[in-house]
Amino acid sequence: MTLHTRRTFLATIGVAALGIASRNAEAAGAVLAPRRKLKKVGLQLYTVRDMMKADLPGTLHKVAAIGYKEVEFAGYFGRTPAQIRELLHKNGLTSPSTHIPLDVLEKDSVRAFADAKAVGHQWVTVPFLPEERRKTAEDWKGIAALLNQLAPQAKAAGLRLAYHNHDFELRSIGGMRPLDMLLTETDPSLVDFEMDLYWVVFAGGDPLDYFNRFPKRFALVHVKDSAGPPDNRMVDVGQGKIDFRPIFAASGKAGIKHYFVEHDQPADPIATIRNSYKYLSTVKF
């Protein structure tokens, strides 16, 4: 081999090697780069509750026009289950979950579950506990027992029962967080949880820690964002400090099936749900 051909050969090998290395790097980058997006973005209708009260059909139309495919109810504002189901169908929406207060379930669980099934819900979610029902560890054990009692009734009606947290479930009572008590003492085969990501972070909790310790328990999540310290006020999703990407990436471990945008006190509800949808429809994880 002449000096000229040897140099040409080595140069060719170098270019080929560089090409292979480049392709390998691109392949590795493709594996490591975020590739998934949420298939559906939902909305907790509490965010637009004043609009719902004034014009429920018109509000559902506006929600669907933004791009939302799923909604979670917080009251039907005088409509029957059949009317709600028809409005959902008309707007191309589904409603996997509805919030029903615990005292309503205690009063007449048969009717509540029947109405929920008639609408087309899959989950009935307990949204909140009044302060007088959650003062002691024994109170929380009683709530866990009540959820275990109601859940088989929900199952018999073709539904699942879930519990939605605020920040007080993460404030220690007797050396243990109430949320941990509920997760530990409820039947995993019957009782699901809806994690409110904002309130968990607000109270100093870590959603990923809960997903690791209680896998497959969080079928639903409320996607809400925080401006961070000092006031930790709610902001439109994507405009705050919560990094949702690792949370969404852990959806398999957590068992998450549905994601609902929520803002408790939006200054402009339509702007808030539009901004939040735009972010969640593009974010990759």
> Structurally, how many domains make up the residues?
2
Could you state the oligomeric state of the chains shown? single chain
Helix and strand pattern? HEHHEHEHEHEHEHHEEEHHEH
Indicate the percent of residues in helices.
40-55%
Give me the CATH fold name of the largest domain.
TIM Barrel
What's the CATH C level of the largest domain?
Alpha Beta
CATH superfamily of the largest domain: Divalent-metal-dependent TIM barrel enzymes
Strand content: 5-15%
Structural class: alpha/beta
Number of strands: 10
Using the 3D structure, state the CATH architecture of the largest domain: Alpha-Beta Barrel
Strand order of the largest sheet: 1-2-3-4-5-6-7-10
Cα(first) to Cα(last) distance is: 53 Å
Largest sheet: 8 strands, parallel, barrel
Residue stretches low in confidence (pLDDT < 50, at least 5 long) are 1-31
- Rg: 24 Å
Shape: globular
* Discrete helix count: 12
Mean pLDDT: 91
Structural overview:
By secondary structure, the chain is of the alpha/beta class. It has two domains: about 1-35; about 35-280, Divalent-metal-dependent TIM barrel enzymes (TIM Barrel), CATH 3.20.20.150. About 50% of the residues lie in helices and about 15% in strands. The chain has helices at about 5-30, 50-55, 55-65, 80-90, 100-120, 135-155, 180-185, 195-200, 205-215, 245-250, 250-255, 270-280; strands spanning about 40-45, 70-75, 95-100, 125, 160-165, 190-195, 220-225, 225, 235, 260. An eight-stranded parallel β-barrel has the order 1-2-3-4-5-6-7-10. The chain is globular. The protein starts with a helix and ends in a 5-residue tail after the last helix.
